[in-house]
């Protein structure tokens, strides 16, 4: 029952409450002028988590938690600030070299050496969007929305979350403004090297849907596959790309505040709520990962011989190299060659499944 109502296991919730109450003065219990104890950290955190989990207004829990509407909303605002400050660096981090190696191993087992996740965008409706901004945030005759761009891996961990752009933008416009490749362009990301079909590549890639451009860092499906090889590739690519769709679905079902129209007026507060939900989602994924269906990568742990993907530390690059790196990220010829090699690799690995 606790897991259903709080969206997480009790030990994890108590760990969050303890850390917040120790380090954030707002959540520490104090005595008032009468000498009575004020609200406890448990009450305040429960109010915030319930508002995130059920997406309801602040006065829904006034009888259960003895909190007024304005106090509940204040708890939520302080809770989001505390979660981002205390847990953001760990649970919204870029993949480290160890993380990348694990993601590459999982991708290789699934038939996609060099793949480190799938990327897509999600729209969150903004009910109380100011009238002056409605044209900016509304596409067509729909409702105003705010866009979240995310990268997710097979275990539903969200590695990249870029939120706040208006809903009139499509996925390509969001990509143009996104910092998803900044670490690669500035030389901060670890170096990746992998082999497909006896060709060596040095740029990891994401699986995407058809709207994304033909860059060496994106691999799309084939819209009208002709022949068994193309059909098998399209089947495997589309099933693996669903990771990010599943992550969005789990995020929305776990935190109904993200599924329901946003009731806040302040865009900055809405952004903090989304970041908090992503951080809590990743904490729950880490806490419950042992219960998920795992992809077996044990074949790579015994010896390095079978592994075709490697991660090494990247040396710092000069400003002149950034343009070359940008050209390499956007190289359509490399994209076409990699896609052909991946098609061949998947056919060799899974071609006899249907026989």
Could you characterize the architecture of this molecule?
The protein has 355 residues and is an alpha/beta fold. It has two domains: 2-91, no CATH class; 97-350, no CATH class. Helix content is 50%, strand content 13%. The protein has helices at 2-6, 10-23, 41-54, 62-65, 69-91, 97-109, 134-137, 171-177, 182-185, 228-254, 256-259, 267-288, 298-302, 319-329, 332-350; strands at residues 115-125, 145-152, 158-166, 191-196, 199-201, 205-207, 218-219, 309-312. The strands form two sheets. It has a five-stranded mixed beta sheet with strand order 3-2-1-6-7, sandwiched between helices. The chain has a three-stranded antiparallel beta sheet with strand order 5-4-8. Strand 2 and strand 3 (158-166) form a beta hairpin. Helix 10 packs across helix 15. The mean pLDDT is 88.
Describe this structure in a few short sentences.
By secondary structure, the chain is an alpha/beta fold. The protein has 2 domains: 2-91, no CATH class; 97-350, no CATH class.
What would the average pLDDT be, to the nearest integer? Answer: 88
Sketch the major β-sheet. Answer: 5 strands, mixed
By secondary-structure content and strand pairing, the structural class works out as: alpha/beta
* Percentage of residues in DSSP E strands: 5-15%
Poorly predicted segments: none
Succession of helices and strands: HHHHHHEHEEHHEEEEHHHHEHH
Side-by-side strand order of the widest sheet: 3-2-1-6-7
Provide the domain count: 2
Give the oligomeric state of the chains in this entry, treating copies of one chain as homo and distinct chains as hetero.
single chain
Helix content: 40-55%
Overall strand count: 8
End-to-end distance, in Å?
46 Å
Shape: elongated
Total count of helical runs of at least 4 residues: 15
């Amino acid at each position: 029952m606790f897991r259903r109502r709080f969206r997480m296991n009790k030990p994890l919730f108590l760990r969050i409450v303890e850390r917040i109450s120790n380090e954030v003065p707002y959540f520490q219990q104090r005595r008032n002028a009468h000498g009575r104890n004020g609200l406890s950290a448990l009450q305040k955190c429960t109010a915030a988590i319930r508002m995130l989990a059920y997406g309801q207004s602040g006065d829904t829990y006034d009888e259960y938690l003895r909190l007024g509407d304005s106090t509940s909303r204040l708890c939520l605002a302080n809770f989001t600030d505390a979660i981002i400050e205390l847990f953001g660096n760990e649970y919204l981090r870029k993949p480290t070299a160890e993380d990348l190696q694990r993601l590459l191993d999982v991708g290789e087992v699934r038939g996609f050496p060099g793949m480190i996740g799938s990327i897509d965008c999600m729209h969150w409706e903004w009910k109380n969007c100011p009238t002056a901004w409605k044209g900016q945030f509304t596409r067509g005759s729909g409702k105003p929305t705010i866009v979240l761009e995310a990268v997710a891996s097979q275990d539903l961990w969200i590695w990249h979350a870029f939120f706040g752009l208006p809903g009139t933008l499509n996925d390509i416009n969001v990509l143009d403004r996104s910092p998803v490749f900044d670490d690669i362009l500035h030389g901060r990301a670890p170096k990746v090297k992998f082999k497909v079909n006896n060709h060596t590549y040095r740029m990891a890639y994401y699986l995407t849907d058809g709207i994304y451009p033909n860059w060496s860092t994106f691999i799309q499906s084939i819209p009208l596959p002709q022949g068994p090889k193309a059909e098998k590739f399209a089947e495997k690519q589309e099933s693996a790309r669903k990771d990010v769709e599943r992550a969005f679905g789990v995020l929305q079902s776990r935190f109904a505040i993200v599924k329901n129209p946003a009731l806040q007026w302040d865009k900055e507060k809405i952004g903090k709520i989304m970041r908090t939900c992503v951080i809590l989602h990743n904490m729950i994924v880490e806490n419950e990962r042992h219960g998920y269906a795992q992809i077996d990568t044990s074949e790579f742990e015994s010896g390095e011989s079978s592994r075709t993907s490697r991660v090494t530390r990247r040396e710092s690059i000069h400003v002149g190299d950034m343009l070359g790196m940008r050209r390499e990220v956007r190289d359509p010829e490399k994209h076409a060659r990699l896609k052909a090699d991946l098609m061949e690799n998947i056919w060799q690995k899974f071609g006899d499944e249907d026989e």
